[in-house]
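Hi, here's the filled form for the chain we discussed.

Project: internal
Contact: R.S.
Residues: 131
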Amino acid sequence: MEVFAVNRHLLAFVVKLGSMIAAVYFIALFFPLWGQANLFHAIILGLIIAVLGYVADLIIPRALNQIVAVAVDLVLAALVVFAGNYFLPGMNVSWTFAWFVGLLVAGIEIFYHNQFVRKSNEPVGEPGPDR
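And the returned structure, exactly as it came back:
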């Protein structure tokens, strides 16, 4: 049963990481007027956002988690992406770019919480009401 719980956390992190990279790269590809970022920038920024967001999901109490995590991820993603101007060479983005990445990340966070964070409270191995 413990292996299943570890696999669930690993899957949750992989999904979060992939979706954060996709969010940054989606805005970079389709909205070039707001800034320039390449795939390397998207991978680095997505990794930072995913790790910080995953740790925040583990720390914030589950009762507040849905509302607070969406707001925290929106602000966190916007700040991390805009800070990329200063620590990633060749990246040049505006605040509009950063806020739209934050909004996309917040939308993904709603799906992520419904699929992984809320279900991590259920006991492993016992059938739930939907099974």
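Let me know if anything looks off before we file it.
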